[in-house]
Write a structure and sequence with these properties.
Layout (H helix, E strand, L loop, with lengths): L2 H6 L5 E3 L8 H9 L4 E4 L5 H14 L4 E6 L5 H10 L4 E5 L4 H9 L3 E6 L2 H10 L3 E5 L5 E2 L7 H11 L4 E4 L5 H9 L4 E4 L1 H4 L8 H7 L7 E4 L6 E4 L2 H11 L4 H8 L3 H7 L23 H20 L4
Parallel strand pairs: 1-9, 2-3, 3-4, 4-5, 5-6, 6-8, 8-9
Antiparallel strand pairs: 7-11, 10-11
Length: about 325
């Protein structure tokens, strides 16, 4: 029995992160068709673009899929209305308090999962009535928790704080990584980086190629005065680093970031001036692959790891 599989009606407790400029309908439907749960990332979509992706995802899979919604989204009311109108039954929320929208989504028949970076926020999620929690560690790509707690420390702390179904995220790209989080108390994993690099991801091919060359240490958490974001070290990263080292103000950092930096890097492939967001787990992935190949590899390695560990006793 696995509570994550039961909650979503899926074969494997593997969820694809709802990543900006990566998680369109092609990636979401591919992960769902492979036995996991695909998520459409609403964070980089205008409301009507999101509607289009939901409709295309329905046409591409008869399996469950969901939508990830950053609660700080400026048109959040319109986004929520679209989710209701399109009959979306699984919603992952992040970047804000789950209190305001959880009951609304429940009233409209949706399962609600919230992303946290600390055990304190996990307890608040339980109080808000969410159905499950994603606990995301410091290793994750994109926007990250201010606590900078690693997944290895975060998962057992959250497990101790709440009995809600628990999904681990941050630095997980392999079956061995998945097995490790299960040993710590997780019941499922949310994987972003590996899926962002697959054939079905909407990220630019040049971005994917660069990610496959990364080693450990080639990304760093930056922009902590704004919203902590893990970046690949490129020319834009160097500009941010220089500004932060000399104590640049929030206003100056906002001006440097500007608008559309992530789109320029991840979606359009400007590897010098774009904001290139990816997790530390990129160092573990060095080949091109489809979603199906990634899921098959993760599950095979997970099962082999569990069998190996179960044969060890002292």
């Amino acid at each position: 029995m696995n509570r994550i599989c039961d909650l979503f009606g899926i074969k494997y407790p593997i969820i694809a992160g709802g990543m900006v400029w990566c998680s369109g309908w092609r990636l979401a439907s591919a992960v769902s068709n492979a036995g996991g749960l695909g998520l459409i990332g609403a964070g980089s979509m205008h409301p009507e673009t999101l509607r289009e992706h939901i409709q295309k995802c329905k046409a591409a899979t008869d399996k469950p899929f969901g939508v990830n919604v950053p609660l700080m989204y400026p048109q959040i009311e319109e986004i929520m209305q679209i989710l209701v109108e399109e009959g979306v039954k699984i919603v992952f929320t992040s970047a804000g308090s789950p209190k305001k929208w959880t009951q609304f989504l429940h009233d409209n028949g949706a399962v609600v999962v919230h992303v946290v970076s600390s055990s304190l926020f996990a307890k608040k999620c339980e109080d808000a009535g969410v159905d499950a929690i994603v606990a995301e560690g410091f290793e994750a790509g994109g926007h990250n928790g201010r606590e900078e707690t690693t997944t290895l420390c975060l998962i057992p702390a959250v497990r101790q704080a709440t009995n809600l179904p628990l999904i681990a995220a941050g630095g997980i790209a392999t079956g061995r990584g998945m097995a490790a989080t299960f040993a710590l108390g997780a019941e499922g994993v949310q994987i972003g980086t590996r899926f962002a690099m697959t054939e079905e991801s909407s990220a630019n091919e040049e971005f994917k190629k660069l990610c496959r060359t990364l080693n450990e240490g080639d990304t760093k958490l930056m922009l902590k005065q704004l919203a902590p974001t893990r970046l690949i070290k490129n020319n834009f990263y160097k500009q941010v680093e220089e500004a932060e080292l000399r104590g640049a103000s929030v206003e100056e950092l906002n001006e440097l970031l500007g608008k559309g930096r992530a789109k320029k890097g991840i979606f359009e492939g400007d590897l010098d001036e774009g904001e290139l967001e990816i997790g530390q787990a990129a160092a573990l992935v060095n080949k091109a692959e489809t979603v199906q190949e990634a899921v098959d590899d993760i599950i095979t390695e997970f099962n082999a790891t569990i069998n190996t560990i179960s044969s060890v006793a002292f």
